[in-house]
């Protein structure tokens, strides 16, 4: 299974509540993105639970624009939030992005995971090299989340 997900963890000196507050505001996601792929969030409000969606304008590795609708599939206040992206008017292909927050003595252990173990579309798998984002870019996203949470 290790070849079907990538997880990165970092300890940050802010509370889980402050980190969660940043993650549940889709309008902040472009600022948080360490990959440079997110361009604009089309989300009128904060995420408040599973089953919600929020749209993001993206740019692929070649610079081509596209849009995704992120389906929130896990939500536990101050502990976990996860979503599965999909093209508009299509179901998620099976990639899950999860943020897990664990309180520590000095703040929060933030774990970001990209899990593609649910992807079953052979065409998608043939066209994409997964994960599409490196561990370094995921670490940069965690760094950006922590910086915004400190504000």
Features:
151 residues, alpha+beta, seven-stranded antiparallel sheet, 4 helices, 7 strands, ASHA1/2-like_C
Q: What share of the residues does DSSP label as strand, in percent?
A: 35-45%
Strand segment count: 7
Class from helix and strand fractions = alpha+beta
Helix content: 10-25%
- Uncertain residue segments: none
- Read across the widest sheet, the strand sequence of neighbours is 1-7-6-5-4-3-2
The chain-level mean pLDDT equals: 87
Rg from alpha-carbon coordinates = 15 Å
Described by strand count, sense and barrel closure, the largest sheet is: 7 strands, antiparallel
DSSP helix count? Answer: 4
Distance between the termini: 37 Å
- Order of helical and strand elements: EHHEEEEEEHH
Globular, elongated, flat, extended or rod-shaped: what is the shape?
globular
Domain Activator of Hsp90 ATPase homologue 1/2-like C-terminal: 14-117
Organism: Gordonia rubripertincta (Rhodococcus corallinus)
Protein name: SRPBCC domain-containing protein
Family: Belongs to the AHA1 family.
């Amino acid at each position: 299974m290790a070849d079907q997900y990538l997880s990165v963890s970092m300890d940050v000196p802010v509370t889980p509540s402050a980190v969660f507050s940043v993650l549940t505001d889709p309008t902040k996601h472009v600022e948080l993105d360490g990959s440079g792929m997110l361009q604009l969030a089309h989300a009128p409000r904060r995420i408040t639970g599973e089953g919600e969606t929020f749209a993001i304008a993206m740019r692929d590795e070649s610079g081509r624009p596209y849009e995704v609708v992120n389906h929130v599939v896990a939500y536990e206040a101050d502990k976990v939030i996860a979503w599965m992206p999909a093209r508009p008017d299509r179901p998620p292909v099976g990639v899950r992005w999860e943020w897990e927050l664990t309180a520590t003595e000095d703040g929060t252990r933030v774990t970001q995971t990209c899990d593609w173990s649910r992807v079953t579309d052979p065409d998608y798998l043939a066209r994409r090299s997964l994960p599409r984002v490196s561990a370094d870019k995921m670490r940069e996203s965690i760094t950006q989340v922590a910086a915004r949470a400190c504000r």
